[in-house]
Each structure stands twice: as structure tokens, then as C-alpha cells.
Design a protein that fits this description.
Layout: H1 29-35, E1 40-48, H2 55-71, E2 83-91, E3 97-104, H3 107-116, H4 126-138, E4 150-156, H5 166-175, E5 178-185, H6 191-197, E6 205-208, H7 217-227
Parallel strand pairs: 1-2, 1-4, 4-5, 5-6
Antiparallel strand pairs: 2-3
Length: 228
């Protein structure tokens, strides 16, 4: 696969080195979008559908994915050499993964799929979710990842998860040159798991107190600037 791997964070924004998301400089909103037009980025959201999430937070997470999709400059077509495409996978038990929508740049498709997505309210096995995302979304026969695109995985999870296949999943992420971002919500998180799925990059882990925080401009703008 294409992509620049975890080192892709170097040079993003106005800095020359990676930094904590909390210390990104503030830039005009239009610049956030402009940065996303300079290269192809395929973004796969992996949403933890465990019972710890809760129905209300599930809806807030859906709105977050929709707002991110609205903010990004989406590709004009699947083979567009620039701009962004988005996918969403909700993971639950070891055999319980739900692809809400594959990689797409069609905002209408994204909105309709999000509106019909249902909360799993199940267990949490992030390793199985990662493997499924790689096999069914990244390598999918329909709308798989673009060959020369940066491949981003954005995790929405507290990291409290079963460890089955987690090491295999992390290995697969490295093999696919995945650039990870982790949005860890709440105070009760598993820092070890968060470190693993962020591939050991602490700057790629956003810690937020609740899902309402994801809608706040302070967080949202930093997040957009980070993935762009």
C-alpha cells in the first residue's frame, strides 16, 4: 500500500516535528481544508461499539464522523490523486464488525449510511476490528484504499478491549503503513492498548473527557489540522 507511515506526521501543519495535539498552533479554518487538498488521504474511522459507549455517545460519535466528512475536501472520484475519502467501521465482539460505509467521497452516501447505522451495544475487540478493516475496507474489492494515498485509521475508543489478535492487528497496521490517530474519550482508559494502536506515538492520542468535547471548536479544529 501507499502512504507515508507514522512518520507522515513530521512536517504537518506549521511545525517541523511532531508535537502533542494540545500544542498545535491556531490557524484560520480555511487553511485546515486547504492542507487536505495537497495529497490523497484515505481515512478509516474505527468506532468502539461496546456497551461502555452507550447509545447517546454512539449518536455523538456519528455526528462527529459526519462533521469531519463535511469539513474535509473530499475526492472528486475514487481514483482522484488528491483529496480525502472516508470509511466507517464499528467493532464489537470478535466476529461482530459492521462496515457502515466503505471508503467513499460521496457526502450523501456518508450521511445516509450514518443515519441508518445502528449501535452494536456489544463487546469490544479492537484487534478483530483492525483486521476486518484491513481485509474488508482497505483491501476491499469495491472502493479499497488508493495505492498512493496516505492511509489513516482514526480510533474512537477508550482502549478497554479484549486483547485477542491485537498483536497481529498492530503488525498488520505497520505492514500497511497505517497512520494512526486515537481519540480516547473518558477518564477510564487502557493506556497500554492506546499506545499499541497508536503505534507508540503519544502525539497521536487525543484525550477528551467526554463525547460532547468532540463537537467543541477547540478540539475539532486541532483534530482536522492533525489528520490533514
Amino acid at each position: 500500500m501507499g502512504g507515508r507511515g507514522p512518520g507522515a506526521r513530521l512536517g504537518r501543519g506549521s511545525g517541523a516535528s511532531p508535537r502533542s495535539p494540545a500544542h498545535h498552533p491556531v490557524s484560520p479554518p480555511e487553511l485546515y481544508v486547504a492542507q487536505c487538498t495537497q495529497r490523497p488521504v484515505d481515512i478509516v474511522f474505527l468506532l468502539d461499539g461496546s456497551e461502555r459507549l452507550g447509545e447517546q455517545n454512539f449518536h455523538k460519535a456519528r455526528r462527529f464522523v459526519e462533521e469531519v466528512s463535511r469539513r474535509l475536501t473530499l475526492a472528486r472520484r475514487d481514483d482522484d490523486p488528491l483529496n480525502a475519502r472516508v470509511a466507517l467501521l464499528q467493532f464489537g465482539g470478535p466476529r461482530e464488525q459492521q462496515v457502515a460505509f466503505p471508503l467513499t467521497s460521496n457526502l450523501t452516501v456518508i450521511q445516509e449510511a450514518l443515519a441508518s447505522a445502528r449501535y452494536l451495544n456489544s463487546f469490544s475487540h479492537v484487534g478483530a476490528g483492525i483486521v476486518h478493516a484491513i481485509n474488508q475496507v482497505v483491501r476491499g474489492a469495491r472502493a479499497g484504499a488508493r495505492r498512493h494515498a496516505e492511509l489513516d485509521f482514526v480510533f474512537l475508543t477508550d482502549g478497554v478491549t479484549g486483547n485477542d489478535s491485537l498483536e497481529e492487528a498492530v503488525h498488520s497496521m505497520r505492514k500497511q503503513n497505517v497512520v494512526p490517530t486515537v481519540v480516547a474519550v473518558g477518564s477510564d482508559v487502557d493506556a497500554d492498548v492506546l499506545s499499541k494502536i497508536s503505534l507508540g506515538d503519544p502525539a497521536a492520542v487525543f484525550r477528551e473527557k467526554d463525547y460532547d468535547s468532540l463537537a467543541q471548536p477547540g478540539f475539532f479544529d486541532r483534530f482536522i489540522r492533525w489528520i490533514c
